[in-house]
Each structure stands twice: as structure tokens, then as C-alpha cells.
Task: structure prediction
Amino acid sequence: MAQSSHKRGGAGLIAGLVAPWLAVGGVILWAALRASGEDSAFAWTQSLNPGGWMAWVFPTALFFWIVAGLLVLFSILAIRAPETPRRGILRIETTRGDRLFIALLVAGFVNLAWLALGLGPQWAALVACAILAAAIFRLV
Amino acid sequence: MKTENQKAWFLVLPVLILVAFSAVIPLMTVVNYSVQDTFGNNQFFWAGLAWFDDMLHSERMWNALGRQIVFSSIILAIEVPLGVLVARNMPKKGVWASVCLVLMALPLLIPWNVVGTIWQIFGRVDIGLLGYTLDALGVDYNYTQGFYAAWATVIVMDVWHWTSLVALLAYAGLQSIPDAYYQAAKIDQASRWSVFRYIELPKMRGVLTIAILLRFMDSFKIYTEPFVLTGGGPGNATTFLSIDLVKMALGQFDLGPAAAFSLMYFLVIMVISYVFYIVMTNLDKEEGGE
Result:
């Protein structure tokens, strides 16, 4: 009995998380398409709300949408598959959420270092970050 | 049967809204500014990672970071030992203990800009007690023109303002040591140093870690006091990170570079905060396990 009510509550929460996230994604896409002029098929770098609040552009909107998506994903994982913290190479107790936070923080620094040292195109830094993130989720 | 529903989320909603407006929305705006350029009139143009590239290769930012690290290291090196020394010599109980605690707490209650103003006047050669005395003693002291005088004043001001925080934390740590430890040390004829090294220091480990991290984080973000006292001068001598940032963002209205700068600053603060959080939770667990 308790099990089923728990499942139901989980499902409601998932709907409450995923639906708004998808809706925000739709709004971003709509704004980008609306901002596209005649000279470009898609508004990669044009202002999404010219003269408006917060000065949005597509890349930053996409960035925050992906981060929000990760938070939604990890929230769902936390509800569906609860876990116990474990100790890794940093010798601190971490959960999946902690490891995500560390991976994002490391990604920030790796990207900056990549840019500062001029190691190549920035997408390559992103690939390096993805590899590092995989290592962090395994080892930390 | 235990009923489960999600109504508790509504209770968290006010906090979420407050955090959104005070932190999330401003942070998102800064991220947006950091990849764009503006010529005013709220019109923005895509700049890509140019500002990050600029700031990472800007001598000005690295200099400010260097000054910041030197400043934080110096004040930690002074405030932590001094705070412990003060705490060890404070009376353990009685009226004087209360008097000492109140006196120690006073600097912590004074607003930052008032602290700056106090020291600005205190250090003046014409009307300030400190400046006048040093001048009368023949010391060439002028914090508005001399590099060393400016640094010395900023550091002494911070020590005056915050050593009591370290002292109060260390005092709390000392108070929690049961008398039996001291009695045992007395029986063993332990020296004052041994008592400190093997009883007091281990027992103060937790509070001192908190004090060091708190002071490091706070000194790393310092703005108001040096801004009021020296305005970052003479020249750029006491221009720490946040003073430089404000000059860039509001003085020159270079929103893009300032946004890139503040995001890097933010990342560093995030790392320190995370370390602080980890240490705090681990201390709680250790205490809970005892």
C-alpha cells in the first residue's frame, strides 16, 4: 500500500518536473525562431528579446536549459532509485548530486584553462569535460 | 497508514521565489552579459568567448587576484594565531569573562563602511590619533600616498575588525574541553606548550577550520572597508578583486568583461564554499559519531 502511494507521488513529481522543463525548451525554441531574420535560418546569436530583460541569447538559454535538464534528471533518479552516499578517491562522502556538482565545477575550470592556454577549439574542451565527468562519476 | 502528498513543496515556494530574484536571475543575467557586448540603450550584440579570453589574458585581473591572495594570506597568518592567543588568555568564568566577550563582540557589530570610516579618520595625519602619533614619532606614514602605509592600514583594520571572530570561536572550542583533561595534564606535569599542543589544539580543530574558511572566504570577497579607506589606492595598490570588478562594471560600464570576470570570481568562491560545506558536514558527522 505504502509502496504504491509512493510510486504515485513519484509519478506526479516527475510530471511536475519534466513538463515545465519541456515547456521552457519550447519557449526558447519559439523565441529563437521568432528572432531569426531573413539573413539566417536560425537565430544562433541574435538577441532573443531585443531591448528586453536579462538580454537572452540562444546559447546561454540552451546552457541553462541543459543544466536545468540535468537537475530534473537527477531529481527523478533520486526519487526512482534512491542511493546511499559512498566514499571515492576524494575520501568524502558523495551522492550522484554531489558528483554532478563537482563535474560541473570542474567543467567550468577546464573550459577556462582551455581558453587561457589556447589549447584549441572550445568544443574540444567540452569533450574533455565529458570524459572527466565520466571519470568523476566512476571514481569520486 | 502514512499518507504521502506533495503539498510541502508549496511551503518551500516562498524561499525558491526569493532565491530566484536575489541569486538565480541576476546570475543568469551576468552569464548573458558575459557573452555579449553593449553600447548602451539595452542593445546587446554577440561577442562569444571574447571577454573571457580578454580577462584570462588581462594583467589587470591577475594583478588584482595576486593582491587578493597576498591580502587573504597575511590576514589569516595574523588573525588565526592572534585569535587563539586572545582566547587562551580570556577569563574562563565570572564577570570578567562576560565583559571580555562583550568587548570582543563589539567590532563584529560595526557595519563595514563605518569600520572603513573609523580607520580613515584614525589614520589621518592631521586629525587622526594613529596618523598624528606616528607622524609625531617621525614615521613617514600616509596611507593615501604610501604603498606600505596603505597596505599596513588595510591589514590592521581587518585584524581589528575580525580577530575577535576567530577569538570567540576558539574560546567556544576551549570552553568545551572538560576539566578532567587539564587535571590529567597537571598530574603528568605537562608543560603549557604540551597542554596547548596535545589537548587544546586537537579540541579546537573543528572551530579553527571553520574560522579559517570563514575568514578566507570573507577576506576574498572584501570590498567596503578598503573601498572606504583607500578607494583601492594609492594607484592600484589596494585594488582587490571586488574593488576592481566594481570599477570595471560600474565605473567604466564595461559590462561584458566585468561579467566574465565576475563569473570566474564566482567559480573560485563556489569551490571555497563547497570545501566549507564538506568540512562542516564531516565535522557534524564526527561529532554525531562520538
In short: The radius of gyration of chain B is 24 Å. Chain B has a mean pLDDT of 89.
